Amino acid sequence: MAQRKSRSDRRIDLIEAARRAIIKHGVDGVQLSHVAEEARLTSGAVLYHYPDLGELLVEAQHSGMERFYEQRLRQIAALTDPATKLVLTIKSGLPTGPLDPDVRLLNELGGAAGRHRVYGVLLTSLYDRQVSMYQSILDTGSALGVFRLTADALSISRNLVALEDAYGYRITARHPLIGPEEAAELILSYARTVTGNDLLH
Amino acid sequence: MAQRKSRSDRRIDLIEAARRAIIKHGVDGVQLSHVAEEARLTSGAVLYHYPDLGELLVEAQHSGMERFYEQRLRQIAALTDPATKLVLTIKSGLPTGPLDPDVRLLNELGGAAGRHRVYGVLLTSLYDRQVSMYQSILDTGSALGVFRLTADALSISRNLVALEDAYGYRITARHPLIGPEEAAELILSYARTVTGNDLLH
DNA sequence: TAGACATTTGAAGGTCAATTCAAATACGCA
DNA sequence: TGCGTATTTGAATTGACCTTCAAATGTCTA
């Protein structure tokens, strides 16, 4: 028998198991048994904690997104220079490689968002928060005279997040010429143009 | 009984039916019965033409992509002015709204591309061709002195396609503030900066 | 240590989808 | 018109998954 765990501990395990299962089989392909296997439990045990698999999947996606977002915030929290901040933020939005689990998970949502309203809402809220993140960096840099923006900070931020997203897809799809470094360079090329800053790294 | 059709006609029908089914249920959620229903046939009839559902789905995605790409080429074929061409190309890469079937279909691939190599290859090849499309417009405009590029045409093209992709996702996910017009404006704002052209439309 | 309770298992059942195939049906062609 | 063949149906089989639940097992506490 698998190790017994408290309700809350087990739920955390199950959410992680669900994340792995989604990455392997897709939001619309995951089965109860996949999650059970990832968690090293039987289907019955999973059902005991989450009578509705759909709810577990939504929670898994939600927690995955939060983790991704908070990681990004944490990475720049200590920094002060807007240019350094911007460069690091761009890099933190890209997968480390085709197998990066966080980005893989987010990518699974792309298609599902069009079909399941919940996922659309989740994805939209993540996008908006990431935009705000960039916007505050750009505004600060602008106020300090480090950046000379060629367009409003909101539009630039929206484009920056959009670029991250798209290259995330390209990288997980294994584009032979575009990996994490190349993608970062492409986004930086945009960022340099619109900020008028060299953005050295 | 459903109308009898020739092998080739029925296969075309089935590919269209599969496209609709994928949009409704996702690549990993489609079932034989879904496709049969869309085609107004029984499962047996579908199996008679495509013994392997997986192959039908790949063909459906493939043909959907080709159609999307050729539509775009056709739209700009008659135009001569690079600026007009660029503007129209940008618009033709965006969905008409959250329900646009072509973009919905493509979006379904995003997640699957990380799991199924075939889909990754398909998606990558579409991306590369779209990049070439932009690149040729930029090169021409540059040669004519209409565009004054702030970076190499390849990088700009990659970013333009990336932006289209990403806003396609935002729109199908029903972002409350970003629709087809707003997305076009955002991409145009980038295009204006990097081409030094007003890109009026 | 014993009893109570929470968690997990494993088996049984029902449902649903894929698959197979013989029979029916419609079409092309002699 | 009638024969032969390609296409489609419908029913039967099989297998997979979900769901339920009684029993087993571990943990906590009195």
H/E series of chain A: HHHHHHHHH
Q: Helix tally of chain A?
A: 9
Largest sheet of chain A: none
Q: End-to-end span of chain A in angstroms? A: 51 Å
Estimate the helix proportion of chain A, in percent.
Answer: over 70%
- Assembly type of the shown chains? homodimer
Mean of residue pLDDT of chain A?
97
Instruction: From the alpha carbons, calculate the radius of gyration of chain A and give it in angstroms.
Output: 19 Å
The tally of beta strands of chain A, per DSSP, is 0
> Which two chains touch over the largest interface?
A-B, 50 and 50 residues
Q: Runs of chain A with pLDDT <50, length 5+? A: none
Beta strand % of chain A: under 5%
Structural class of chain A: mainly alpha
Task: Indicate the overall shape of chain A.
Answer: elongated
Strand and helix map with partners:
Two copies of one chain form a homodimer.
Chain A: H1 7-25, H2 32-39, H3 43-49, H4 53-77, H5 82-92, H6 101-115, H7 117-143, H8 153-172, H9 180-195
Helix pairs in contact in A: 1-2, 1-4, 1-6, 2-3, 4-5, 4-6, 4-7, 5-7, 6-7, 7-8, 8-9
Chain A binds a DNA duplex (30 and 30 nucleotides) through residues 1-7, 10, 31-33, 41-45, 47-49, 51, 53.
Written account of the structure:
The structure is a homodimer of 201-residue chains. The first copy, chain A, is 74% helix and 0% strand. The first copy, chain A, has helices at residues 7-25, 32-39, 43-49, 53-77, 82-92, 101-115, 117-143, 153-172, 180-195. In chain A, helix 2 (32-39) packs across helix 3. The first copy, chain A, is elongated and about 60 Å long. The interface between A and B is large, with 50 and 50 residues. Chain A binds a DNA duplex (30 and 30 nucleotides) through helix 3.
